[in-house]
């Protein structure tokens, strides 16, 4: 690879590479005093220097491969995890992406100063400028790499949380012998309704429930998609031998559904969970008796 | 195929080939006519995989038993199977379902005409 680097643009790249290798320790020492490293490695300065050295080595390796503009260069793989950790630590500390980015930018001037001082005094102005430019490009690429990893970290976090949300958001409650209820809360999308359907059907088998109540009091809006999901769940429950009742349709939602022309077809609906429970108990032949009123049946 | 009084109990097991399912459909129609059964209980708890063909066969069985003045109850469908059928758009509207054979017997007792000679078939599917 170094042979390739000795092309027209190769000379400054090689110069920068040699400089990074020669002055690695020094750069790392200076970086350790920068806010980015100081904030992440609070315990010991040596650790910060070591981390800085690893980054410098990676940069030198990238320069060696003459791929200063490529964020996917092999040299970055070694430090990617470490950079991600640093980026994540700063994000956790409450810094915005732009602030992290400017902290990264602050790493450049010390290196640039060192580089200018390191070049022989009689070096041509042209040469000095192209060396500095190469270094700048390299540092820019480093910034891109850190931002990339930080973003993918964030995405991973969101994915994890979405999974957790799916798990906690769909409890199936046994209301009575043979009656289960699912209080749905929040927007129903395809993934969630799938989970709701699966957990509901599982518990129908488990509890041998002949009736299942889907309570949508906590669902903010009902559009055709949500209605379709509800219909699917009801149909699947029916195939298993359980009757499904949809309850908790608020007046505004009932109005919207009629306006949209949504037809829940043969699905039994009730205004509230209490009404649904009353209906189901009636179907099961269970009456509710208020004591002291001569045993009259309340429902 | 088991006969319990006026009810035929069919248990489906494991992988059901298309030809087997079709054979079952024919046998069932003949047995209903021969035995005068008023109810058919199909236990699908052993079925783990369904396709659109089997779904259609089940719907057809329900239709033909209805024509023969008998009622079909599907029993013990697994959640995964139910979800698959719904996703395929096969909600089997004419078929009765139950969680267990006990419940299915109860459903048939409650709703079936007392004998094949009773009623005008308004209780049919």
From TrEMBL, chain A:
| Record organism | Streptomyces coelicoflavus
Q: Name one Pfam family in it.
A: STAS
Q: Does the keyword Phosphoprotein apply?
A: yes
Q: Domain named STAS: which ranges? A: 169-280
Q: Does the keyword tRNA processing apply?
A: no
Its keywords, alphabetically, are:
Phosphoprotein
The protein's matches in PROSITE patterns, at most eight in alphabetical order, are given as: STAS (PS50801)
Tell me which CDD domains the record gives. STAS_RsbR_RsbS_like (cd07041)
The identity of this protein, by name, is STAS domain-containing protein
